Amino acid sequence: MARLTISNLDKRFGAFDILKDVNLEIPSGEFVVFVGPSGCGKSTLLRCISGLEAVSGGTLSIDGVDVTKVPPSQRGIAMVFQSYALYPHMSVFDNMAYALKIQKLGKAEIEAKVRDAARKLQLDLLLDRLPRQLSGGQRQRVAIGRAIVRDPKVFLFDEPLSNLDAALRVQTRLEIAALKQSLPGTTMIYVTHDQVEAMTLADRIVVLNAGRVEQVGTPLELYERPGSVFVAGFIGSPKMNLLAGAEAAKFGAATIGVRPEHLAFGQPGEGWAGTVMRTEHLGSESYVYVDVGSDEPMIVRTPGTAAFAQGDAVALTADEGAILRFDAGGSRLA
Ligand SMILES: Nc1ncnc2c1ncn2[C@@H]1O[C@H](COP(=O)(O)OP(=O)(O)O)[C@@H](O)[C@H]1O
Ligand SMILES: [Mg+2]
C-alpha cells in the first residue's frame, strides 16, 4: 500500500521556476495520469517523486512518512522511461533478474519473482530471448517487468509507449490496463501526451500548466466539466472549439467552448454561418473544418462520410446545454 502526498512542492533550475507549489494527494492503488503541454514539468515532477531530482521546496511523503530526503533506491519507487534501456547482451530473464541478483536474493526466489512478473506481462515464452529478438512493445514490457520484480510501492511511467507504432501502442496500452488490475495495491503515475491513453487508463487525470496543477479530476469530469479554458482546450481530440469576442458576449461570457461532437449542421440562418474549408474522412466519422470568421476554424465531428465540398455555405448549431462559458480570467462560469 502506498499513499503519496505531495505538499507545496517547488523545483527550480537556476533562475527558472519549473514546478510551482504543487499539491497532490494520491491514494494507495490509484492510477493517476499527468498531462500537459511539452515543457510544463511532467518529467521533472516524476523525477522529483522518484528522488532522481532533489526538490527546491516542499515535501513528499509515502504513507505519511516524509521521504523528501530519502535516496531514490530506498523509496520503493520504480520508474519506466520512454527508452527501455535493456542490457543488450542479457536474456529477458537476466534483464528482469538483474536488480534482484544485486540485492543478493536466493536463486529460487529470483526465479519465482521473474516468472510471476513474466506471466503478468505475457513474457513467459520469451524469457530466453535477447532484447534485439523482441518487438518494441515486448521490449517495453521487459522494462516494465524489470521494475515489477522489485515490488515497488509506487510505479512511475514517463511516456512509456511513445516510441511504439500505433498498433503496438494500442496493444501495450491494454496490457498496462491489465497490469494495473493485477497490481491493485500499487500506486501508478503515468505521463502521456496521448489523449486516449489518458482517458482510458486514468482513475484521475492531473492537468499541469507551466509547472502548476491546473485541474485534477476523473477523465469524464475533465472532459465534461473543465474548470478553465486551458483544460477545455487541452483535454479532447479534436480540440474543443473556443470562441471569444462578440460571439461569446452573446452568451454573457469572455470565451465559449463547444465540443466538435456537439455541433450539428442546421438550416440556413440558424446558429453560426460559415464556409467549409476542408473535410477529413476517418472512415467511421468525419471532421469538417468550417470558417465562421473566428481566429480558428470550427471543427464539426460527424458520423459517417460527410459530403461537403470546399466553399459550401453551412450553418452550425449547438444545444444550449453543450456550450461552456468562461470568464475573462479563463475560469468556467456556472
Ligand atoms: N536539468 C535541467 N536543467 C535545466 N532545465 C531543465 C532541466 N530539466 C528540465 N528542464 C526544463 O524544465 C522544464 C520542464 O521540463 P520537463 O519536466 O522535461 O517537461 P515535460 O516532461 O512536461 O515536457 C523545461 O522548460 C525544461 O527545459
Ligand atoms: Mg517529459
From TrEMBL:
Record SMART domains: AAA
Domain ABC transporter: 4-235
Annotated GO MF terms: ABC-type maltose transporter activity; ATP binding; ATP hydrolysis activity
Cellular localisation: Cell inner membrane
Keyword Nucleotide-binding: yes
A GO term from the CC aspect: ATP-binding cassette (ABC) transporter complex, substrate-binding subunit-containing
Name this polypeptide is given: Glycerol-3-phosphate ABC transporter ATPase
Organism per entry: Devosia psychrophila
Lineage, top ranks: Bacteria, Pseudomonadati, Pseudomonadota, Alphaproteobacteria, Hyphomicrobiales
